[in-house]
C-alpha cells in the first residue's frame, strides 16, 4: 500500500513536469466521447523522438463498431494486427515499452470523456504479455492539460492535450518497474488524436561507479512520436 502511494505521488509529479513547458488555453465546452464508424481511417507517420528520423507509418482502419467496442485493423510495414478499443479509444491490447505486446484487463484508461478543464483520473489494469505470458499491474495517472492548436502533416487542428504517467509493475531484483510518460493531442474534428509522443525509463540497480558513488543508473527507453498524415474525413 505504501509502495503504491509512492508511485502515485511520482506519477502526479511527472504530470506536473509534462505540463510545465507551456501554459495551454482552457478547454472551454467539455469535449464528448467520439463516435467511430466502420471505414474511418487515420494514417500516422512514426518518428524516432530522439533524432526525428522516420520509422514508417501506422494506418488505423475501423472494421466494425459494436455497442461496447471499436474493432480496428492496425497496418504497419510488418503487417496488420486487429486491435479492440473501448468506445472512448481505450485499448484492450497494445505495445508497452521495450517492444512488449500485452493484453489489458480492463482496457487501459487512456481517456476519460468528456474532456474538460482540470479533469484528472487514475486506474489500474492487469497486463499479460503476449510473448511470455507474464502478468503484472499497470498504474495510470492522467489529466487534461488544456486546449492547443497544433500543426501536423495533415494540417492544423484544434486539440485537447492529455498527459499520462504510467508505472508498470514489471520490476525484478536488478531493476525497477518501467516508468512511461505520454502526451496525446485529441482533435474533436477527426474523432481521434492527431499527435502522440512518449518516452520510458527504468532504474538499473546493478550499475555502479564507486569513484562517483553512483549506485544505480536510469536507463532511457524508446522515445516515439506519431503525427497524423491523412484522415479519411472530418467529423
Automatic annotation (TrEMBL):
Keywords: Signal
Domain DUF3108: 135-200
Signal peptide span: 1-25
Pfam families listed in its UniProt record: DUF3108_like
Lipid metabolism found in the keyword field: no
Keyword hit for RNA-binding: no
InterPro entries registered for this protein in UniProt: DUF3108-like (IPR049279)
The protein, known as: DUF3108 domain-containing protein
Native source organism of the sequence: Pelomicrobium methylotrophicum
Amino acid at each position: 500500500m505504501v509502495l503504491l502511494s509512492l508511485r502515485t505521488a511520482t506519477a502526479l509529479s511527472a504530470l506536473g513536469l509534462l505540463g510545465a513547458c507551456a501554459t495551454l488555453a482552457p478547454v472551454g465546452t467539455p469535449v464528448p466521447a467520439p463516435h467511430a464508424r466502420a471505414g474511418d481511417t487515420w494514417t500516422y507517420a512514426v518518428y524516432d523522438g530522439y533524432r526525428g528520423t522516420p520509422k514508417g507509418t501506422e494506418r488505423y482502419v475501423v472494421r466494425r463498431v459494436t455497442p461496447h467496442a471499436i474493432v480496428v485493423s492496425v497496418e504497419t510495414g510488418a503487417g496488420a494486427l486487429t486491435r479492440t478499443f473501448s468506445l472512448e479509444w481505450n485499448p484492450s491490447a497494445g505495445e508497452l515499452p521495450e517492444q512488449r505486446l500485452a493484453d489489458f484487463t480492463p482496457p487501459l484508461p487512456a481517456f476519460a470523456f468528456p474532456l474538460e478543464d482540470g479533469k484528472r483520473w487514475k486506474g489500474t489494469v492487469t497486463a499479460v504479455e503476449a510473448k511470455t505470458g507474464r502478468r503484472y499491474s499497470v498504474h495510470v495517472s492522467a489529466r487534461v492539460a488544456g486546449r492547443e492548436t497544433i500543426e501536423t502533416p495533415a494540417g492544423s487542428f484544434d486539440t485537447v492535450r492529455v498527459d499520462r504517467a504510467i508505472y508498470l509493475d514489471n520490476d525484478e531484483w536488478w531493476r525497477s518497474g518501467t516508468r512511461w510518460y505520454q502526451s496525446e493531442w485529441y482533435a474533436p474534428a477527426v474523432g481521434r488524436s492527431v499527435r502522440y509522443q512518449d518516452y520510458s525509463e527504468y532504474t538499473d540497480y546493478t550499475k555502479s561507479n564507486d569513484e562517483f558513488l553512483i549506485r544505480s543508473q536510469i536507463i532511457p527507453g524508446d522515445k516515439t512520436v506519431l503525427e497524423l498524415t491523412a484522415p479519411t474525413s472530418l467529423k
